[in-house]
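Hi C.,

You asked whether I'd gotten around to modeling the 360-residue construct. I have! Everything is below, sequence then structure, no commentary in between.
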Amino acid sequence: MTKVAQLSKSLIMGGAETMAVQIANLLNYNKIESHLIIACDRKDEPLREKIDTGVKSYVVGQKNRIDFVALFKVIRYIKKNKIDVLHVHFPWSSWLANWVKRICKIKLINHCHHGGIINWGEVELKEFSKEMKFSDVLISMTPRQTKLLRELTINNTKVVELKNFATNEILEPKFSKTNVLCILGRVENPKGHHFLLEAFKMVSEKRSDVELKIIGPYYPQRDYHKHMVEFISENKLDDRVEFVGKCLDINKILQNAKCGIITSEYEAGPIVAIEYAHVGLPIISTKVGFIPDIVRNRENGLVVDYDNAETLSEMILSVCEMDENQYIEMATSFQDDIIERFGKESYYNVLIHQVYSIKK
């Protein structure tokens, strides 16, 4: 029987980390021996609670990008458990993964979660190609990524396009009488919180009943967060903007929200769009990842250019002013389209047959 290990940098609440856990769980559900190797040992990681009991997990304690102690630990684990496939979810471990591939003679899969790769220059792409040269398969997440990775022709590595999926319970859309906006994900670049706050300021000048919940890990010591706090304070928005932080029961918050928002400059997925759809929320999003292929503006969602705060504010107001029928129609249409395109059964079939080449 084929044994597969996911390699994730950590278990913080991020798109790549979430997918590593979900794939590990999906394989376990389908009776494939599933392992999850966590490179860095961090405390208070909410995704730890999401790992199914049948998944075997191992924390390496990697300290640096080049870490021989971590390498020997992973090699020992791979050999002891007779792992056949290593599925890597972050480029930071390319050095470790490439050595594991050469020493253990296993199949190496690299999952390209970085949406910004399509904007990289020649020097960055050359370095990326060098890091990926030992990969057997590269997983892309959008048509533009697929085209780019195939053009790079990294040692004739196979490129498979595989979009995200979500495993949340699918809830019927319902009309929310409270105007709570939610943005889900790590509070850092390239998530675009700065122009969301600018838009929210414009909205707050016209309506006093709108709130913003920022859900996800944030880092008070970083300038990105400090600038957000300063903006909120200067514009007297403290009582209307909440940093929720790490949260296991995200669905409970989303179910009582009016709208899910994505303001990223670039994304490979984004998996949060699938999570919004599963709880029945309509979406306002920048044109990132698969969004342009799914969201038809003002039909099943709203699409805004990155850094256009004025248009974003108008879209937020339009959602808040929708009547119940308009709101349910948009949310239902978005949910139906997401379910059709991002089901876990079709994802599993591509993963098993085209990526891992497992015959079942």
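If it helps when you're writing up: Residues 324-341 form the longest helix (18 residues).

Thanks,
B.
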